[in-house]
Amino acid sequence: MLTVQGAAQLLPRQVFLRVSSWLQIAFFVLLLTVYFLQPPFSEIDQLAKAQSKLLWLPSYWFFGMFQQLNGPIRPELAMLANRAWIALGAAVSGAAGAYLVCYFRTLRKIAEQPDILPETRRFRWLPRFGGPFETAVGQFSLRTLLRSRQHRVVFAFYVGVGLGLAMFIAKAPIMREQRPEDLWFRMNAPLLVATTLLLCAAVVGTRMVFAMPLEPRANWILRIIPLPDLARSLAARRRALYAIGMVPMWVALAALLFCLWPWREAAQHTVILGLVGVIVAELCLVSFRKIPFTCSYLPGKSHWHMAVLIFGLLVFLMSKGAEGERVAMQTLTGWIIMAGALLCVAILARYRTNSRTRREGPDLQFEDGPEPTILPLGLYRDGVLPLEK
């Protein structure tokens, strides 16, 4: 990856800035795809029979190197170890060359040339999101995500993690027990979990990049113009989250399901998938008092240990829910009951988000400051503090 990035630095500065983030995303997706989809080999005999496949799987190369460093190596692994040493030498040499190019060429261009130039393309059409304010927030969010390399990489990280876990779940033992012709073309719990996980990853990833500012000092124009109150601006944030994070992934998964499964099962799971996406999106909007990409970001507030525990619990609930959905979809009555229950949960989640927004006050948040050291008790009498009398 460093070698290719170093070679890309030889391009003109603006071309490199546009290509660099896409290269990072492509490498990340390629890494997850190869890692989760590579065939497993548990015995030496299987390795000996699959020499043609092993030539394209670097993880097995370094397995051969590991065996060589531990002591005598079997002949079946000698070829893998040789390829690992060649790959390691190429990676180290390419990384060193990349750093040299960065030092002698890129550092000077960072100081001499701007990172962002005015847009020169003529085609600037973007969809409307409702009223003027909703359209402004939605188009601003979409343009920011399309132009900002950092936000695209973070969003791709969340979607890539969801894609990797979805591929890992899709390779469950129940999938390998089926016949090859039935592997993808029938409803099963692993694919139900995989599609749900992908949609949730897209929605959560969009919500996370919304909280990251593009340029904190540039939000002054939003702070001086009259903006709707917090309750009215919730519709703009909700439509932006739906249009960028939920709807594109939901449409892509629906097209995939209709290509693989019979139309009835695909339509039923598409409806369930949409309701789950609405629930996750409404939960992500709770206590989100910001216009996307405009509020300053204070690091150190994320609790990764709790996030990992919650994510593990969600995966467990998804697996149990997929089994229940598979059973419910066998009859029309069962599917209607399940869809009705999810619809009630979605309505309750939306109501909770609206009521929580109304209670938090009328102002939007533009500065993410630390928690105050001293918390006032608010003991007022006739509008004056008692200690001031």
Give an overview of the whole structure.
With 389 residues, the protein is mainly α. The chain has helices at 2-8, 13-37, 44-49, 51-54, 58-70, 75-112, 132-147, 149-170, 173-177, 189-210, 220-224, 230-260, 263-284, 304-328, 332-359. It is globular and about 75 Å long. The model is unreliable at 175-181 (pLDDT under 50).
Helix/strand layout:
Elements lengths: L1 H7 L4 H25 L6 H6 L1 H4 L3 H13 L4 H38 L19 H16 L1 H22 L2 H5 L11 H22 L9 H5 L5 H31 L2 H22 L19 H25 L3 H28 L30
Query: Main beta sheet: strand number and arrangement?
Result: none
Figure out the total of helices.
15
Beta content comes to: under 5%
The number of E-state strands comes to 0
Quick check: average pLDDT? 78
Q: Which structural class should the secondary elements be placed in?
A: mainly alpha
Shape: globular
Rg result? 26 Å
Helix-residue proportion: 55-70%
Span from first to last CA? 69 Å
Keywords:
single chain; 389 residues; mainly alpha; 15 helices
Short synopsis of the structure:
69% of the residues lie in helices and 0% in strands. It has helices at residues 2-8, 13-37, 44-49, 51-54, 58-70, 75-112, 132-147, 149-170, 173-177, 189-210, 220-224, 230-260, 263-284, 304-328, 332-359.
